[in-house]
TrEMBL record:
Pfam family, one: Lactamase_B
Top-rank lineage group of the source organism: Bacteria
Entries under SMART domains matching the protein: Lactamase_B (SM00849)
Keyword entries, A-Z: Hydrolase, Metal-binding, Zinc
Any one GO MF annotation of this record: metal ion binding
All residue ranges annotated as the Metallo-beta-lactamase domain in the record: 12-192
UniProt-listed Gene3D superfamilies: Ribonuclease Z/Hydroxyacylglutathione hydrolase-like
Taxonomic lineage of the native organism: Bacteria, Pseudomonadati, Pseudomonadota, Betaproteobacteria, Chitinivorax
Names of required cofactors: Zn(2+)
Protein name (record): Glyoxylase-like metal-dependent hydrolase (Beta-lactamase superfamily II)
Length: 214
C-alpha cells in the first residue's frame, strides 16, 4: 500500500496520503492545514482524492478538513463522536494558537470500534482508542501490517492527556489493549515524529514498555 507522510502546520503534524494501487483512489488522514501544499502532493502523485479520514478532533489534525471537504466535495470519515466538542471548538482553537481560520464541520460518517474504512480496494480497520481525546480512533491495514495511530503512541513517547477530556489511565489501556494486539511487526505512523513499530515500543518506550517483552 503506497503512502506518503506530509508534515503540516507549525506543529509538524503527520498528515498521510495513502492510495490504492489498483484504482488510484486516495485519502488524506488528518489534513490539519497547509491545504495548498496537500493538494500539490495529491497532484504530484497523480491519485484521485476520494475522502478525508480523521483520527481525532484536535486543530493540528483537522484544521484543513472543512476547506478541503467543501472545495472538493469530499466525504469526511471519523473520528468517533466523542470528539464532536473538539470539532465544534475549531474556530476558538485556531484563534488561540494563531492559526488561520478553521471552520467546524460535521463528519459525513462517525467511526466506532470495528468499523471499516474503504479506500479503493483497501480496507482499514478502525479501533477506538480514547485517552488523548475521548473520540480518538486508529486505522489499521492488516495485509500491510501498517497503522495510522494519530496521537495515541509515538516513537519513545505517548500522547498528552492534560487537555480537556484526556485520561492517562484510559490512554495506557488503549495502547495495551488495542495497539499491542496489532502485532510486534506492525509499523505505525504517529501524529508527530518518525515511524516506529509496535515491537520497538513494547520493548523500549519508557511510558508503556512491556517488561515481559522478549
Amino acid at each position: 500500500m503506497p503512502f506518503r507522510i506530509i508534515p503540516v502546520t507549525p506543529f509538524q503534524q503527520n498528515c498521510s496520503l495513502l492510495w490504492c494501487e489498483h484504482t488510484r483512489d486516495a485519502a488524506l488522514i488528518d489534513p490539519g492545514g497547509d491545504v495548498a501544499h496537500l493538494l500539490s502532493i495529491v497532484a504530484e502523485e497523480q491519485v484521485n482524492l476520494t475522502k478525508l479520514i480523521l483520527t481525532h478532533g484536535h486543530l493540528d489534525h483537522v484544521g484543513g478538513t472543512a476547506e478541503l471537504g467543501k472545495r472538493l466535495s469530499l466525504p469526511i470519515e471519523g473520528p468517533h463522536p466523542g470528539d464532536q466538542y473538539w470539532i465544534d471548538q475549531l474556530p476558538i482553537q485556531a484563534a488561540m494558537f494563531g492559526f488561520g481560520a478553521a471552520e467546524s464541520f460535521t463528519p459525513t460518517r462517525w467511526l466506532k470500534q470495528g468499523d471499516v474504512v474503504e479506500v479503493g480496494q483497501l480496507r482499514l480497520e478502525v479501533r477506538h482508542c480514547p485517552g488523548h481525546t475521548p473520540g480518538h480512533v486508529i486505522l489499521f491495514e492488516p495485509s500491510e501490517k501498517l497503522a495510522f495511530v494519530g496521537d495515541v503512541l509515538f516513537a519513545g513517547s505517548i500522547g498528552r492527556t492534560d487537555f480537556p477530556g484526556g485520561n492517562h489511565a484510559q490512554l495506557l489501556d488503549s495502547i495495551r489493549n488495542q495497539l499491542w494486539s496489532l502485532g510486534d511487526d506492525t509499523r505505525f505512523v504517529p501524529g508527530h515524529g518518525p515511524m516506529s513499530t509496535i515491537g520497538q515500543e513494547r520493548a523500549t518506550n519508557p511510558f508503556v514498555a512491556d517488561r515481559r517483552f522478549g
